[in-house]
C-alpha cells in the first residue's frame, strides 16, 4: 500500500528517476567547453557509470511495483481467498469485504431470490436445502449460454445453505463445493449450479431444482410400483428404468473422471431425479479434483458403507474407489432402497471386505447387473472396471431390454396378454 501511494510522486518529482536528463549526457555541462575538456569526459563517464545502472534499477523497481499492486488488487477481488477455513470472526469479515459481491458473474442479487422456508427439500448434518425461485435470469445463463433445455428465467431452484452453527470444516467444504461446481461444464447427468447469493455468514448455493428429489427416497417411495411392474401399471417405475438410471449415473461419473474428479461420496442419496426422470449426480461436498490418480484424505465425515477397502484402511481414493461405491449404489437401487450391510458393524466392514464377503444379490436384481456390481467390488482397484466400461456394458443391456426387463415370467404372467416373443428376453 505504501508503495502504491509513493510511486507516482517518484515518477514525477524525483530527479534521479529520469536518467535521460541532459545534465548527465551533455559533455559541456558544468563549465566552459574548451577549458574543461577533461571535466567534460569525466561527466560523461560519471553519467554513464551511475545513470544507466540507476536507471535500469529504477525501471525494474517500477515494473515490479506495478505488477505487485495489480496482483494484490486481483487477489482482493477473489471472493473466496484460498486458505478459507478460519476462525468465525475472520470468516465474516472476509465476506463483508465489498470485493466479495461485485465482480462474480455467478452472483445473484438477494432481491431476485425467493426462498420458501416451509418447503425443505433436504437436510444433512451440516446443510439445509429449501425450494426457491429465481426472479429474472439465472446467472448461469450468461456463463454457459445456449447449452441446455431447462428454463433459466423465473425458474425454480434448490437453495443450499449452512445452518448458523455449522463448524469451520463444514464452511470450508461448502466453499470448495461452490468453487468446484463453478468449474463444471453443463452435463445432463450432473446437477448444475445456477448461481449463488452472498450472505453475511455464508453464501447460498443455487442449483437446478430436481422435482423427484433424491434417488434413494424416490426408489423407497415407489418400491411397490417397481415390484408390480408392467403387469399392473404401464406408467409405473420399472426395473428397466432402474437400468436407465444406472447408465445415466455411470455416464455422469465417466465425465467427472475424465476431468480428473474423484467424487468420494457416490450413493443413491446423492443422486437427484428431475421431472423427466433423468438422474443427476449432486452433492459435490467431498469431491476433489486431482492431478494424481490417488488422493489421500484424513478424517472428516465419511460414508463408511460405500467406501472401498483401500479407502477404509488407508484413506486412499482413486477413480477405482469411486467404482466400488458405484457398485454399492447399484445394490441400493436394485434392492429397492435397502440399507447396505445393515447387519454389519462399521468396525467390522474392512474385515468383511477382506474376507471376500460381498453384498448378496437382491431379489429383483437381474444376474447381469449383479455381475457388474461384483466386478466393482474386486479387492484390487486395478481389477475393477472403469466407468467407461460400466457405461458401455449398461448401454448394451439397455439396447436389448424390453419393457419386461428384469421381471420373472411366472410372477405377473397370467394377468396380461403380451407379445410372446417379449417373454424370451426376460431375465
Ligand atoms: C411454500 O411451501 C409450502 C409447503 O409446500 C406451500 O404450501 C406454500 O404454498 C409455499 N409458499 C409459496 C409462497 O410458494
Ligand atoms: C392378477 O389379476 C387378478 C385379478 O384379475 C388380481 O386379483 C391379482 O392381484 C393380479 N395379480 C397381480 C400380481 O397383479
Automatic annotation (TrEMBL):
Active site positions: 265
Bilayer-crossing regions: 43-69
Domain of life: Eukaryota
SUPFAM superfamilies xrefs: Protein kinase-like (PK-like)
Start and end residues of each Protein kinase domain: 115-408
Keyword annotations: ATP-binding, Kinase, Magnesium, Membrane, Metal-binding, Nucleotide-binding, Transferase, Transmembrane, Transmembrane helix, Tyrosine-protein kinase
Binding site for ATP: 269
Example of a GO MF term: metal ion binding
Positions that bind Mg(2+): 270, 283
Cross-referenced InterPro entries: Kinase-like_dom_sf, Prot_kinase_dom, RTK, Ser-Thr/Tyr_kinase_cat_dom, Tyr_kinase_AS, Tyr_kinase_cat_dom
Protein name, as recorded: Protein kinase domain-containing protein
Amino acid at each position: 500500500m505504501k508503495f502504491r501511494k509513493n510511486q507516482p510522486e517518484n515518477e514525477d518529482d524525483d530527479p534521479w528517476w529520469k536518467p535521460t536528463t541532459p545534465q548527465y549526457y551533455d559533455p559541456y555541462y558544468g563549465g566552459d567547453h574548451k577549458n574543461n575538456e577533461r571535466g567534460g569526459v569525466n561527466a560523461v563517464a560519471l553519467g554513464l557509470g551511475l545513470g544507466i545502472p540507476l536507471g535500469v534499477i529504477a525501471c525494474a523497481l517500477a515494473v515490479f511495483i506495478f505488477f505487485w499492486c495489480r496482483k494484490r488488487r486481483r487477489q482482493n477481488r477473489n471472493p473466496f481467498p484460498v486458505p478459507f477455513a478460519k476462525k468465525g470472526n475472520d470468516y465474516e469479515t472476509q465476506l463483508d469485504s465489498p470485493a466479495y459481491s461485485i465482480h462474480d458473474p455467478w452472483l445473484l442479487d438477494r432481491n431476485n431470490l425467493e426462498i420458501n422456508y416451509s418447503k425443505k427439500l433436504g437436510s444433512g448434518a451440516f446443510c439445509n436445502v429449501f425450494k426457491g425461485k429465481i426472479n429474472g435470469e439465472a446467472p448461469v445463463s450468461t456463463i454457459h449460454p445456449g447449452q441446455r433445455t431447462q428454463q433459466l428465467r423465473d425458474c425454480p431452484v434448490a437453495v443450499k445453505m449452512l445452518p448458523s452453527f455449522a463448524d469451520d470444516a463444514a464452511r470450508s467444504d461448502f466453499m470448495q463445493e461452490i468453487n468446484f461446481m463453478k468449474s463444471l461444464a453443463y452435463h445432463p447427468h450432473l446437477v448444475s449450479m445456477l448461481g449463488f447469493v452472498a450472505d453475511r455468514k455464508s453464501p447460498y448455493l443455487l442449483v437446478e431444482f430436481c422435482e423427484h428429489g433424491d434417488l434413494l427416497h424416490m426408489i423407497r417411495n415407489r418400491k411397490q410400483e417397481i415390484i408390480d411392474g408392467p403387469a399392473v401399471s404401464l406408467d409405473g417405475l420399472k426395473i428397466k428404468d432402474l437400468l436407465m438410471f444406472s447408465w445415466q449415473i455411470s455416464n455422469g461419473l465417466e465425465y467427472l473422471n475424465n476431468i480428473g474428479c474423484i467424487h468420494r461420496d457416490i450413493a443413491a442419496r446423492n443422486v437427484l431425479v428431475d421431472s423427466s426422470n433423468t438422474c443427476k449426480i449432486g452433492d459435490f461436498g467431498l469431491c476433489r479434483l486431482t492431478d494424481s490418480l490417488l488422493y489421500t484424505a484424513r478424517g472428516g465425515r465419511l460414508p463408511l458403507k460405500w467406501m472401498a477397502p483401500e479407502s477404509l484402511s488407508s484413506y486412499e481414493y482413486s477413480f477405482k474407489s469411486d467404482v466400488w461405491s458405484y457398485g454399492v449404489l447399484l445394490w441400493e437401487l436394485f434392492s429397492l432402497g435397502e440399507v447396505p450391510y445393515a447387519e454389519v458393524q462399521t468396525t467390522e466392514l474392512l474385515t468383511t471386505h477382506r474376507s471376500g464377503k460381498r453384498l448378496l444379490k437382491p431379489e429383483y436384481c437381474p444376474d447381469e447387473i449383479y455381475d457388474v456390481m461384483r466386478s466393482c467390488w474386486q479387492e484390487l482397484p486395478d481389477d475393477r472396471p472403469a466407468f467407461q466400461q460400466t457405461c458401455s456394458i449398461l448401454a448394451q443391456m439397455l439396447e436389448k431390454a424390453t419393457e419386461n426387463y428384469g421381471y420373472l415370467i411366472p410372477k405377473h404372467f397370467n394377468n396380461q396378454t403380451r407379445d410372446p416373443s417379449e417373454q424370451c428376453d426376460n431375465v
